[in-house]
Structures are given as structure tokens and as C-alpha cells.
Amino acid sequence: MPDIPAGGPPRVPIEFGSLEWKEEVERYDPRSPARTRAQSARKAIEAGTAKLDWKRCKADGPGGTKLPGCRKLYVPLGKQGASQAPYGLVFQLIQKADDSLAWSLIAFGERHPANERTRNVYERAHKRLHGRYP
Amino acid sequence: MATAVKRLDLTVGEFVEVAGRRYEVVPDREGGVTIEPPITPAAELHARRGTKPASAEDFERLSVDVPFDDEG
User: Fold this and answer.
1) Quick check: is A41 in a domain?
2) What gap in Å lies between CA B33 and CA B23, rounded to an integer?
3) Rounded distance, CA A127 to CA B56, Å?
């Protein structure tokens, strides 16, 4: 599905790997708000009907997270504040064997968990990239 | 009847299987450890799929106009 409309930089597809989807989204109860909102976001992204308000991730972020080469979308799509969009999808820009590029899902979760024991989406993304929590 | 407690000597990075499900031993936020469903490392996924992280140049070319926020 298109990343940026015509006239902008080259379009880059967005991919949801089945294993990443299972580990990140399907860890939630099927009826949970987190899972249903992630599913809705994916559906809109794949249909190309959503305006995607991308944000860059930081190479050196709060809490020691290091997410170079990554972008994120708040969920629900189109919402901004943490109360309106409590979840996030993090994607890494990848290069495939045929040299094409894609945004590949690496993490989904809460941006600011109320439970201090819960890892936020940036910590989960860091762990996927670096193999351990920051 | 007293319940027997199974004592486990677990180290961060190890994997355990409980009732047929695999979990990874990870640090908690209080100096101890806990277990959680594993997060497959990107490096492992790249190796399986023949992909790799894109270059910093490609990322900057595509993201030059994309804003940061005050999060991660």
C-alpha cells in the first residue's frame, strides 16, 4: 500500500509480518481494545484509505531506547494525544533481496502504559532490534 | 495441603517452556527477572527472509520531512 502520495518521495510498501503480528498484536485478548484497534489500523493502512501521520523514532530515545531507521504511527490512526491514541505501531525500513524497500512492522503496544511493569512499544521495538531491553 | 514450590534458577536470555508454551526470561524493573512470550530478534527474521535494515541514507531520503515527537 502506498506510503506517500504522488509527488512525494518514492512510495514504499508497508508490511505486517505474520510472526511479528502474532507476537505483537495477537498477544492481546481478541476482544481487547488494543487488538481491535491494531486490526482496524492495519485494515485502513492496507486499504490505502488512511492518512498516515508518520513520526520518526529516535536513535537515542528516552529510557535508552535506540530505534534508528524506524518510524511510527499512533493508533487509532489520525489521533495524536496519548489519551486519544494510546497505542503505537513501530516500523523499520528494510531492504529486500531484490533491493526494494519496505516498512516492516517490528512492534505494537502502549505508548505510555499505566502499569509500570508493562513495557512500552518503544522498549518492545528496541528489544526486537537489539535482542534485549534497554 | 501445602503447595510445593518449584524453585527455578533462571538467567536473563534463557527460555523456559510452561504448559507447552515458550517464554523468555527477561529483567523486570525491580532488579529481578520475569518471563514473557519471546520477541523474535529482527536479525533472526532478516536472516530467514533475506532482508536487512535499509541504509541510513535511504532512511533519511524518505524521512527528511517526517517530524519527531517527544517519545521514543
Assistant:
1) yes
2) 12
3) 20
Residues of A in contact with B69 (CB under 8 A): 55
Q: B51 at the A interface (CB within 8 A)?
A: yes
- Give the total number of structural domains in chain A: 1
Distance from CA of B61 to the nearest CA of A (A): 8
Domain containing A56 equals 14-130
Minimum distance, in Å, between the CA of residue B6 and any CA atom of chain A = 24
Question: pTM of this prediction?
Answer: 0.93
What integer best gives the mean pLDDT of chain A? 93
Of B63, B1, B72, B65, which is closest to residue A12 (Cα–Cα)? B63
B42 touches chain A (CB under 8 A): yes
Q: What is the domain partition of chain B in residue ranges?
A: 15-63
8 Å CB contact between A134 and A63: yes
